[in-house]
User: Fold this.
Amino acid sequence: MRVAAANRAAEAAAGIAPGLPLADARARLPDLRVVPAAGQADMAALAALADWCGRWTPWVSLDTAGPDAVLGASHGLWLDITGCAHLFGGEAALLEDMLRHLARFDFTACAAIADTPGAAWAVSRYGATKRGAAKNGRVVASGKTRAALAKLPLGGLRLGAAEADGLERLGFRAIGDLYGIPRGALARRFGDGVMRRLDQALGRADEPLSPRRPVAARRVRQDFAEPIASREAIAATVRRLLDQLEGLLTAAGEGARRLELCLYRGDGKVERIAVGTSAPARAPAHLMRLFAEPLDEIDAGFGFDSVALAASLTQPLVAAQLALNSQPMVPQNLFEQGGAGDDGGEEVARLIDRLGGRLGLGNVRRLALFPSHIPERAAIFASASACASAAIPQTQSGHWPAGRQRPLRLLPRPEAVEAIAMVPDDPPVMFRWRRILHRVVKADGPERIAAEWWHAEGAAPLGGEADSIRDYYRVEDERGRRFWLYRDALYRPGMTPGWWLHGLFG
Assistant:
């Protein structure tokens, strides 16, 4: 049993610190109060705090590699504030604002800003000496990292216990004691871990940080001097952020496919609303309608003091020439969705977005073309969001391949018919389907379709019993009805070819 965390009174009274055996801690302080550690609950609370720290920067990650991480729990957060400090009045003002908010939640926090993550880690834990809500932080000026680390203890390099004890036995007490030591001498005794940590702290080696959440390329935010809680104020804020985001997307020639709205409450909680679109979009009026219903369900609590809107997924959206007439174009077939500037196609996309907001985009399905020569595989049902992305490959922007006429109605399964042809390879002169005799007056074909040999199932026949070749014919009877027939077997001596009806033209 070891100490996972200790409050300031235990540290000051008996020097009890994380990592100390519990028996030793009780020996130092007999009336010590002990409660079981809850590592998973601590991690959950720290993750929630990390999400809330997104009000200052979207690049927040958990510190899980430090030597003070006991029982799998982490005691720190990394915040990459590159390009963010000026939004809060500078680095010192950002640090003061952060510590003031954390003190309001009864968190005792130390923080530091430096050129490298390693230097910030060391200074925050060993370089801040003042106590207080907004004084327990330090900003290391750019280029002053080496001097700031020189007098700090070796624990600031995040070394393992064996490495730290070995260096202390050799007489090293501060980080600055390692500056003039030949690298080879330390590497032979301790490996490359000590010098790698030193290089990372001084900026001579990279130390990448992975954000807890994906960082969106397009992000806008707004802070408030006083929290907002009314539905009208929140909606007006979202509309202003959508207007700002539209400018960023227009300049980049992009449209949003997925948007995430983060509302930061004053009590440390974050309300999130995520919406998606079936096609790239950036019109504020349309996107505002997608947020309208979710905004009615959020819990404002005592109000939000910061709101951020991010486009987590974008796709190219170029300007398109509108038609001169005011009538929307009528699709030529059921699968044609219209171009980017097509009023009809745009209205369909907006309808899908509104339905997806209520039902989920994955539950809204539509027909989509699929690049297959097999008629029953050429059209599939897919989610509306997949139809507009690369997940479903399209052929010629949703149009049928040129020269291939397909019936308006395709039967679920080809139905066998009795047909008579003058020559085995000619179209039928009459056929019987569902007990009704049809006399053919016009015919066109054949169009030969074979199995897709590049698939494993291509070896199986497409229909019938003989082989995997179909010869399709478009025929018209004496009453003007058009049918799509095929013969599933080539003519061979002693074999009667089978005829099938696959679709109706009208």
Q: What stands out?
A: The chain is about 30% helix and 25% strand. Residues 323-404 form one domain. The radius of gyration is 35 Å.
